[in-house]
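Lay summary. Proteins are chains of building blocks that fold into shapes, and those shapes determine what they do. In this project we predict the shape from the chain. Here is one chain we studied, written as its sequence of building blocks.
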Amino acid sequence: YVFTFLRFYVLRFTFTFTLRYVTYVTYVRTYVTLRYVRYVTLRYVTLRTYVRTYVRTYVTYVRTYVRTYVRTYVRTYVRTYVRTYVRTYVRYGTVRTVRYGTVRYGTVRYGTVVRYVRTYVRYGTYGTVRYVRTVRTYVRTYVRTYVRTYVRT
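And here is the predicted shape, written in a compact code that computers can read:
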């Protein structure tokens, strides 16, 4: 008797395909085994050959998750700030004459409007001066506009 044992492996094919967020790699591995080759010698020569073939398929899934996160953040910030400031300042004193004050107003940089109102009222009673009242009124109006744009990636 002669016994021969043969085994060999064949990697049949490999293919890949890609779905959304998932990459599948499929390996199909085929094992082919020649189990026996048996030669029997008797009075009359008889040749018997047993060939058994096993085909085993292994499917391996390799999952690859690739995520690309691109965020573009665009923000436009527009703010208009309007403030009116009114202040009245009253001071008392002693003076001889009566005067009426002036009004001044102007424009300052960066969109700020400042109005400055001064009013002087000085008065007396029957030829004699008793009180002096000074009234100062501040009127300030702030107009500020902020435009900010954020771009974040």
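What the prediction tells us: Residues 7 and 33 are 5 Å apart (CA to CA).
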